[in-house]
Amino acid sequence: FLMERKTPAKINRKEVMLAKLRKSCSCTPQKLKNFLMDFFPVLRWLPKYRCKEYIWGDVMSGLVIGIILVPQAIAYSLLAGLKPIYSLYTSFFANIIYFLMGTSRHVSVGIFSLISLMVGQVVDRELLLAGFDLNDDAPPALGDGSLQNDNLSNTTAFNFTIAGINAECGKECYAIGIATALTFMAGVYQVLMGIFRLGFVSMYLSESVLDGFATGASLTILTAQVKYLIGIKIPRSQGHGMLVITWINIFRNISQANLCDVITSAICIVVLVTAKELGDRYKHKLKFPLPTELVVIVVATLVSHYGKLNEVYASSVSGAIPTGFIPPKVPEFSLMLRVALDALPLAIVSFVFTVSLSEMFAKKYAYTIRANQEMFAVGFCNIIPSFFHSFATSAALAKTLVKTSTGCQTQISGVISAMVVLLVLLFLAPLFYSLQKCVLACIIIVSLRGALRKFQDVPARYQVNKVDTLVWVVTMSASALVSTEIGLLVGIVFSMLCIIVRTQRPRTALLAQIQDTSFYEDDLEYENLSTIPKVKIFRFEAPLYYANRNYFLKSLYRLTNLDPNLEAARRKKYEKKEKQHLKKGNHRTANGLGIRETTLQLVPKQIDFQALVVDCSSISFLDTTGVNTLKEILKDYKNLNISVLLACCNPSVIDSLKRGGYFGKDFGCMQEMLFYSIHNAVLFAKDQK
């Protein structure tokens, strides 16, 4: 039977476009109100806030995250190559802006190790190009930690003008200028992606690519922190192969290790790892996570201050951290041009991590987010703070898990966290003057446990999917051994190549009937299947298009053990010789054989089937080459008196065949060429004479 297709309703595209334009360009009070409430989701949920039900969980989770944020912000400043004060600014502004614009109730947006690393690599490169010494570890200025003293200490002997920067701008000033320009450009890219609905870009970052990228970047982060762990001074490697070069320099200078830093690092790592393991083991019994990082920082700062570790043992310390806010400044346009290309992968990675975490927790807690609005939110979390000496941000999994485990209900918790950071910015920052850098490096390294544990999952990942494991290994290796940006690009390209290869060389099979049923399966995969006499059933498990056309034909000829072109050529050759000998009246051929014997040589075996059924259930689409390929096999097999029947075609494939003239001009033979199940095609083939 032939099912009748519905006639699609004709759509006047011009009228639809005009209607959309009229709707978009109209401005009414209600539309303006809806726009504001969509752009600032806080206006929708804050009036409905259940204070008695939510406030305790939000305050508790906000305080815990704020306590975690302070030591992490100070520590991650090492990754970004900036002063700790800028990390605190970043954490403060990101939480406030996401509170206003974000649609996720649980995501913690702020400073993130991978993003800090990517910012730091660009900052280091530009500092080198500007002629600054990355290893210029000038002793911190003495004073009360005020902004004035800090500004004086930042003025170095570099008196020149670069990209429009004032001649009095020193190393720190130039570094934060690069970071803010990079952050501004990343935010602009994210907002533009939101305006043009380009969120689909995140689809090309598979889970394997993201995991491999995070693990490779974690190895780079770990490598960059080793010099702080053991207190050696080595040049900060830049460019490709940074990981290998850094380890070579570490082993060359290992004899210069600072014993005080080594002992401090060993103690801190033991304490942090033990506390984390105990916290993971007894997390169901604890109401909130232990603030181990804060305790370690407080104790280490006190020991360093009263033990005078910097003066006596030359242990490197954080130095003066100013209080208050530096006046806002517009990012330098000339610097934006220098880092415009670097901002693109930063924008994509930041957005992808934020949206993927938002979707994960929205699904877990049964609510919805708007991915496009998340793009705007994270974009403005970069644009606005860049005027206030902040750098790029993203959602962080570890802090988000802590938020949910401590009772977070809404983004009110983000405001509480911002208030904790503000307290440090206004009053407590100078107290961290004596904090050793090796302690900060220990906090960073211990925070990488989750990403580094991905190595343990490789065997299980390999059992699930070998191709995804290969994508993970390639992305991880490229991110660690080449660079993070190149690693991300390599991962995306390699994963797409894997998809292309899968469609170019898909699985093919000859099917046989499951006994006493109307179903058919792969004869090589299952036992006790019944072959159909005089009928071959061929399955091709991929779209049929120009890239796999040859593989389709080779597989078909190999499995059916018949190449119709060779067979047709063999028959023509036989017929030609037969006619020549009949004209001469000679019933024996030139090689001394009879005509019957010649036939056996030229046509060595009889064709064992009279119908070929092509199972099209896995063919999602056909291009022009695919249609022509099916027309070609239809013609070639017809010359051998073998009928070709198509089964289980989806509507788009049928439409492609119609447009390509596969069924003839008037589709008269369509009922004898197209079937809605394999079994119907087999029954039709059996009834053929």
From TrEMBL:
<dbReference type="InterPro" id="IPR036513">
    <property type="entry name" value="STAS_dom_sf"/>
</dbReference>
<feature type="transmembrane region" description="Helical">
    <location>
        <begin position="376"/>
        <end position="398"/>
    </location>
</feature>
<dbReference type="InterPro" id="IPR002645">
    <property type="entry name" value="STAS_dom"/>
</dbReference>
<feature type="transmembrane region" description="Helical">
    <location>
        <begin position="472"/>
        <end position="501"/>
    </location>
</feature>
<comment type="similarity">
    <text>Belongs to the SLC26A/SulP transporter (TC 2.A.53) family.</text>
</comment>
<feature type="transmembrane region" description="Helical">
    <location>
        <begin position="410"/>
        <end position="428"/>
    </location>
</feature>
<feature type="transmembrane region" description="Helical">
    <location>
        <begin position="54"/>
        <end position="76"/>
    </location>
</feature>
<keyword id="KW-0325">Glycoprotein</keyword>
<keyword id="KW-1003">Cell membrane</keyword>
<keyword id="KW-0812">Transmembrane</keyword>
<dbReference type="InterPro" id="IPR011547">
    <property type="entry name" value="SLC26A/SulP_dom"/>
</dbReference>
<feature type="transmembrane region" description="Helical">
    <location>
        <begin position="212"/>
        <end position="230"/>
    </location>
</feature>
<dbReference type="InterPro" id="IPR018045">
    <property type="entry name" value="S04_transporter_CS"/>
</dbReference>
<dbReference type="GO" id="GO:0016324">
    <property type="term" value="C:apical plasma membrane"/>
</dbReference>
<keyword id="KW-0813">Transport</keyword>
<keyword id="KW-0597">Phosphoprotein</keyword>
<dbReference type="Pfam" id="PF01740">
    <property type="entry name" value="STAS"/>
</dbReference>
<dbReference type="GO" id="GO:0008271">
    <property type="term" value="F:secondary active sulfate transmembrane transporter activity"/>
</dbReference>
<feature type="transmembrane region" description="Helical">
    <location>
        <begin position="173"/>
        <end position="192"/>
    </location>
</feature>
<feature type="domain" description="STAS">
    <location>
        <begin position="525"/>
        <end position="685"/>
    </location>
</feature>
<keyword id="KW-1133">Transmembrane helix</keyword>
<dbReference type="Pfam" id="PF00916">
    <property type="entry name" value="Sulfate_transp"/>
</dbReference>
<dbReference type="InterPro" id="IPR001902">
    <property type="entry name" value="SLC26A/SulP_fam"/>
</dbReference>
<feature type="transmembrane region" description="Helical">
    <location>
        <begin position="335"/>
        <end position="355"/>
    </location>
</feature>
<protein>
    <recommendedName>
        <fullName>Sulfate transporter</fullName>
    </recommendedName>
</protein>
<feature type="transmembrane region" description="Helical">
    <location>
        <begin position="96"/>
        <end position="119"/>
    </location>
</feature>
<keyword id="KW-0472">Membrane</keyword>
